[in-house]
């Protein structure tokens, strides 16, 4: 009887470990559901919106200008940020605030991206902490899941003028 109980316990433990590994790989490499918080991406993503983030793009270096990404915060590695990619390595970006009279520009260094929130007046982004290393990107947001009336692919940036073609 003890042998039977021990056998069932080890079998259950083995299945638990197997399914745990499968779940880890799915969330790490395929994607997952993310609840966004904060006003920095308004009006595109509102506080408490639920989105689907896919992780394959970051592994295959397929992140493009205009994509909305989830990244580790350069200021606080325990938290994630949700921002739009404004510039890739080598791109010229505007590093000044929209209210600044004199506009200043810089180039995104190799291995980095320039991230900004859609709500420029209420966003802590690359204009504050500089270019973000590509390795901090966790995934690319594909579409909004909740609220249901906004279900679908995300709209284009309201700050399209921030994308420089130099």
TrEMBL record:
Enzyme kind, highest EC tier: hydrolase
Catalytic residue list: 40, 83
**Family as reported in the entry's similarity comment:** Belongs to the peptidase S26 family. IMP1 subfamily.
The protein here is known as Mitochondrial inner membrane protease subunit
Question: Where do the Peptidase S26 domain residues begin and end?
Answer: 20-96, 104-146
Tell whether Membrane is among the UniProt keywords: yes
**According to its record, what are the GO cellular component terms?**
mitochondrial inner membrane peptidase complex
List this protein's GO terms for biological process.
protein processing involved in protein targeting to mitochondrion; signal peptide processing
Keywords from the UniProt entry? Hydrolase, Membrane, Mitochondrion, Mitochondrion inner membrane, Protease
For the keyword Transferase, the answer is no
Query: Partners and quaternary state?
Result: Heterodimer of 2 subunits, IMMPL1 and IMMPL2.
Compartments where found:
Mitochondrion inner membrane
Q: Which Pfam families match?
A: Peptidase_S26
Origin species, per record, is Mauremys mutica
Its Gene Ontology molecular function terms? serine-type endopeptidase activity
Q: What is its EC number?
A: 3.4.21.-
